[in-house]
Protein: RecF/RecN/SMC N-terminal domain-containing protein
Organism: Lasius platythorax
Amino acid sequence: MQCKMEDIAMLHGNMEDIAGETSTTNDNETNTDLSSLAKNQSAQAFFGPENPEEPYSDDIKYNCVAPDKRFQSMFNLSGGEKIVAALALLFVIHSFQPTPFFVLDEIDVALDNTNIGIVASYIRDKTSSLQTIVISLKEEFYSHADALIGIRTDISECLESKMLMLDLTTYPTYIN
């Protein structure tokens, strides 16, 4: 029985060490991505366990401080601020566990035109290490794309979908 207690104590100590290292690394990475995404060095993010005493037994909390604002709960952030914060977290996770591509559905819905340009530029900067499919209905966002793909219904004998593709790389770059 004594050996099991020692094993549990050692495991608990190792978990605390790992949680501490992960928390520090994630905070630094998240702050870097959030500051880049927000185009403002005053943006900060905090990522850690709800229960620091037993980090493996509870939820993870994620809070952000929007540029030039005071700390407030994620519930009190605007829709655009929440999107930027969520994207920062997504890109931090991607830096640890890379995936070949992202599919992002209408991430620009709550963003104003300025932030649409910032987010689109940020995603474009990541294209060397990541392919991204973004579903958007806003010209301000899809004007930054390499290609536009449209899906339409073809009404003939059978109801089917057809795909249209426009390669934007053949056109001169014009971004506001």
Observations:
- DSSP finds four helices and six strands in the chain.
- The longest helix spans residues 2-38.
- Strands lie at 44-49, 60-65, 101-105, 131-135, 147-155, 159-167.
